Amino acid sequence: MKRVEKSVGVLCGVLLLAGIFAFAGQVTGGQRKAQPKEEAYDESTYGPANPIIWTKPLKAVVFSHKTHTMGAGLSCDNCHDAIFEMAAGTAQEKPDFTMASLYKGKYCGACHDGNMAFASNTRCATCHVGVKGYNRLTGADAKKSGKAGH
Questions:
Q1: CATH code at 43-145
Q2: Residue 89's pLDDT is what?
Q3: Coil, strand or helix: which one is 110?
Q4: Full-model pTM
């Protein structure tokens, strides 16, 4: 008798799941939504594929052109040459390339003001990857441990 009760319980569970999946199929039309194809990254349109890594005034801050162009819909001239010079790393050589300047609306702070984009005094780890992040991005960890090329 216990074996029959257990079999009935299992059968009820299977039927319940089958009903849930059938209902889900009706709601979605029985098909999975197609995921949009990701557009190919074109450096001549969107800027360098590799991230810009600033090491001054501290190590390290990462900037992704893809996030800002393909992701946010900006074009090169939104930032170049008004906010940043075209040559990568030029800004970090300026004495006012500091967080205080960003908070006042210079450099990244021109957009990262809390209105257009998240404020430069929030979500710090989004850009600030530190020494460990820098080592990971540049492969310095692998070089130190002798695992380069593995």
A1: 3.90.10.10
A2: 86
A3: helix
A4: 0.67
